[in-house]
């Protein structure tokens, strides 16, 4: 915190853990609306606290239940923020506030990047500070953990308070009442400390997005109120368990999930969702003169505005065409199939750079292809982005297999991918990592240190399974082991999407999940299922476990649910649809191992996927039936879209076909036949 607190209010230890360790004491301090920024002992505010340890042993399955009763002994209402801190003293701490902080959010990496995000570092230089606080709804799960010294310690508490018949309490499933106030969570390198708060602060900085940020705001609407003479009981769940590595986090998160889980609403069926979305994309987003789809279709009231932003995948091109091809076969829609085939054929026939043997990233006017996409200014060097090269190859292979299944052969697609992968296999470094960017002149790797190149591994693994050619298999397995050890074991996957300067994200892991699936399909090695489980668990750290009480329209008035949707990254705090694309992989895992947790997460994902689009015209204050944006602002972050009167909107007023594509890829696969029938 900004100033050291000399005197503190300490809550006593009263219970023993499984290993005989005492419950670590909690430290309670507060900051009042009328005071300075320092958190001081409760007694200085006329507040008292009492604690009871009701149950538990601190383990992942049975955390200590600590009931804290706060009382205002003063004669005036008190407003401010109360901080409940757990100093752990763990060495070399790595923090995990799901969706917000992973390790130190690369606090040791270069700070001077275009995209900024909260980082932890002892030497405070924006955007790195030794402590952070945030409103609870920035997190996918209401908890804060710290790993170090062979242990995992943490706190879990209600993400908000509710009021009913004059009584306020922390929300949990089964507790009803009207929304009262958000809580908050935090972390601090000093003392290796995690915390939760009644009321909240976004401090020392608030990030609206990676380019718009503001320093700690004056106290106001963020305050928790305790009336004169009022008392409130608040429950905190406290963890302390041995940890071989950072993956122990998932043992605790399973408990948090079970305690706070809410299902998303049931809204549309899978066939209804597929039909609505695919029809809208084919009708409103197809650009026949471009042999592609628009990236954005904006609803301007009396007309649509098209923004192409061309790319062969990721935010356009094959990310739309491949799922649309799946929909065409599911719906028996030859018109949709012809559009998708036109897009795929055009990319295969026209995109290849003869110098490098790799596809160019986007097509410009007059049929000119290059690598200068909307993201290219973010790349450290010019060249082919491995993310798009690998993803496009993977999606072409998936389309090839689908068409083959229905009696249509496209040998040129298979040949195109095989030739590209021959080049990219040579680009691996001595660690087995694929590049972040590849040379336009030779196809050689130009820079590394990212999860982005894992899409090349996914494509090569799929190719090995599809063709039966296992010549690259030893190298593929070596690359898989590298990515698992360097990124997944540490719970720090960065460098997936190209627009956030190698910050930590939830996108890159989706390529690894696909890669491991097909490597297992080829080899049958059981350890690969363990790795797949690890990867799914990492993605779940970004996936909401409850339905956050969104306060901003249109999401606040439509019944939209956050559970099952994943936060994009620590840089872009909005829920996005990309994680829906790996439903088939979750089914693959469950066909080989029974796992109630993964099964429940799969159900969340599918239900969430079927409730984000317009079921009628302008249901979300924009667009036609079937329209869906890519951005769902569950918190204060990324509230940059506005209504005509200037008030903020919690989604983009646009149809985004590639965002829809992630959902369509997920629910038009195995889920179409299996969901609800098991």
CATH class of the largest domain: Mainly Alpha
CATH architecture label of the largest domain: Alpha/alpha barrel
SS-based class: alpha+beta
CATH topology assignment of the largest domain: Glycosyltransferase
Helix content: 25-40%
Q: Biggest sheet: strands, sense, closure? A: 10 strands, antiparallel
Figure out the total of helices. 15
Strand content: 15-25%
Q: What is the 3D form?
A: globular
Overview of this structure, please?
There is one protein chain. The protein has 678 residues and is α+β, with helices and mostly antiparallel strands. The chain has 2 domains: 9-260, no CATH class; 270-674, Glycosyltransferase, CATH 1.50.10.10. 29% of the residues lie in helices and 23% in strands. It contains 15 helices and 37 strands. The strands form 11 sheets. Strands 1, 2, 3, 6, 11, 14, 15, 16, 17 and 20 form a 10-stranded antiparallel beta sheet that branches. A hairpin with a 2-residue loop joins β14 (160-164) and β15 (167-170). It starts with 8 loop residues before the first strand and ends with a helix.
């Amino acid at each position: 915190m900004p100033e050291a607190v000399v005197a503190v209010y300490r809550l006593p230890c009263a219970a023993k853990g499984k290993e005989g360790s005492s419950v670590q004491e909690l430290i309670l301090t507060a900051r009042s609306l009328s005071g300075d920024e320092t958190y001081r002992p409760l007694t200085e505010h006329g507040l008292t606290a009492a604690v009871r340890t009701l149950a538990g042993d601190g383990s992942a399955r049975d955390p200590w239940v600590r009931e804290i009763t706060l009382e205002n002994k003063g004669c005036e209402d008190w407003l401010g923020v109360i901080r409940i801190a757990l100093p752990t003293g763990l060495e070399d701490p790595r923090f995990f506030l799901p969706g917000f902080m992973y390790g130190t959010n690369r606090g040791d990496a270069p700070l001077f990047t275009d995209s900024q995000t909260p980082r932890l570092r002892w030497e405070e230089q924006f955007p790195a500070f030794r402590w952070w606080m945030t409103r609870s709804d920035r997190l996918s799960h209401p908890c804060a953990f710290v790993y170090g010294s062979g242990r995992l310690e943490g706190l879990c508490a209600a993400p908000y308070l509710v009021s009913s018949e004059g009584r306020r309490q922390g929300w949990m499933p089964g507790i009803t009442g009207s929304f009262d106030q958000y809580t908050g969570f935090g972390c601090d390198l000093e003392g290796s400390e995690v915390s939760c708060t009644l009321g909240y602060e976004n401090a020392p900085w608030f990030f609206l997005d990676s380019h718009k940020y503001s320093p700690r705001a004056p106290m106001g609407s963020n305050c928790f109120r305790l009336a004169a003479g009022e008392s409130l009981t608040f429950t905190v769940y406290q963890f302390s368990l041995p940890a071989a590595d950072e993956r122990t986090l998932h043992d605790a998160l399973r408990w948090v999930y079970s305690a706070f889980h809410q299902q998303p609403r049931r809204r549309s069926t899978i066939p209804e969702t597929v039909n609505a979305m695919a029809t809208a994309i084919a009708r409103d987003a197809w650009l026949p003169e471009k042999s592609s789809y628009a990236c954005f279709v904006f609803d301007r009231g009396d007309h649509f505005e098209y923004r192409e932003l061309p790319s062969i995948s990721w935010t356009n091109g094959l990310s739309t065409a491949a799922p649309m091809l799946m929909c065409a076969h599911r719906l028996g829609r030859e018109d949709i199939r012809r559009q998708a085939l036109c897009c795929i054929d055009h990319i295969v026939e026209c995109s290849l750079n003869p110098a490098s043997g790799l596809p160019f990233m986007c097509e410009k006017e007059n049929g000119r292809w290059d690598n200068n996409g909307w993201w290219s200014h973010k790349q450290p060097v010019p060249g082919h982005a491995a993310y798009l090269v690998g993803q496009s190859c993977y999606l072409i292979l998936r389309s090839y297999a689908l068409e083959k299944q229905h009696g249509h052969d496209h040998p040129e697609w298979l040949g195109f991918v095989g030739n590209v992968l021959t080049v990219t296999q040579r680009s691996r470094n001595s660690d087995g990592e694929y590049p972040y960017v590849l040379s336009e002149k030779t196809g050689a790797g130009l820079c590394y240190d990212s999860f982005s190149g894992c899409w090349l591994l996914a494509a090569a693994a799929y190719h090995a399974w599809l063709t039966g050619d296992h010549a690259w298999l030893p190298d593929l397995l070596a690359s898989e082991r590298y990515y698992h050890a360097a990124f997944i074991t540490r719970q720090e996957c960065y460098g997936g999407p190209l627009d956030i300067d190698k910050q930590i994200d939830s996108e890159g892991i989706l390529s690894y999940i696909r890669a491991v699936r097909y490597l297992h399909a080829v080899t049958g090695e059981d350890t690969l299922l363990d790795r797949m489980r690890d990867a799914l668990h990492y993605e779940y750290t970004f996936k909401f476990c409850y339905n956050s009480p969104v306060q901003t329209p249109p999401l606040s008035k439509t019944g939209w649910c956050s559970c099952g949707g994943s936060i994009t990254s620590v840089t872009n705090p909005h829920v996005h649809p990309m994680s829906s694309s790996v439903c088939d992989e979750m089914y693959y895992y469950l066909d080989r191992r029974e796992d109630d947790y993964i099964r429940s997460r799969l159900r969340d994902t599918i239900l969430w996927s079927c409730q984000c689009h317009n079921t009628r015209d302008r249901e979300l204050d924009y667009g036609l039936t079937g329209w869906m944006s890519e951005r769902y602002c569950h918190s204060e972050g990324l509230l940059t879209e506005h209504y005509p009167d200037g008030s903020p909107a919690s989604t983009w007023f646009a149809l985004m076909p590639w965002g829809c594509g992630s959902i369509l890829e997920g629910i038009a696969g195995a889920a179409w036949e299996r969901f609800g029938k098991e």
